[in-house]
Amino acid sequence: MIKLTDYGKIDHLLNQIKIEKFYPLSIVEGLQKGEIFVDNDETPTAALIWHYCGFANILGAYDEGFIKETMKMMQDPPEGHSGRMALQAENNSRLEGLILKTPLVVKHERYIFEFAGEKNDILYSKEAELKEITAENYGLMKGKIIPAFSWPDKEEFLKNGFGYCLIKDGQMLACAFASGISKEYVDIGVETVEECRGKGYGKIVSAAMVKETLRRGKSPVWGCDTRNEASMRLACSVGFETAGTHPWYTCEK
Prior knowledge:
Layout: E1 2-3, H1 22-28, E2 34-38, E3 46-51, E4 55-60, H2 64-75, E5 86-88, H3 93-99, E6 105-115, E7 129-132, H4 154-160, E8 163-168, E9 171-181, E10 185-192, H5 201-215, E11 219-221, E12 223-225, H6 229-237, E13 240-251
Parallel strand pairs: 4-5, 10-11
Antiparallel strand pairs: 1-2, 2-3, 3-4, 5-13, 6-12, 6-13, 7-8, 8-9, 9-10
């Protein structure tokens, strides 16, 4: 497996991305960080596109050897990623069989969402102020699903991403941001401070993200594990509908 530097060499493979394609597209289009590995750096027929946050996709005419190399990197990720590989895949029994041959690799499911249209709810909070994420308030965001999840630094996020947060007395209550972004799509990441959950704050910032994404002429996208029912309900509350599931794989050491 070879690390690719000229991303244009896999243009002929990009239409094969079926699942959560905004993350691989963000790398190819130069908007977010990640790496691309191929079977042949002159005429690639298979590719692994691996986003900074850990999400990865395989595409093309991969063989068992290519999957084995991918699984080796899943088990022992090199520097430059979040320390994990979460391999997104379509429902494919052959691919599943090849992947699950690897010890400690387990299968999970993620919801497939379709955006049905912006909700017309007027959302606000009397307790906190909705603000765009800026250099001044970037450091207030705490938790797992915040810009640092999918962006290597503040400068990269502010250059190519955007988001909103609810702030009260100098503290962040919730934030929503472009976790994955391409020329056409914005994947919305959301975090609510644990003690503030259940108060509708996540819906306020998520609705703001949907509105701004549409204003920019892009399609809003949502993804979550099927075990995360709270995220699924939040997605549906701001205009998404579930349309099925797809597998994803990770190594659980």
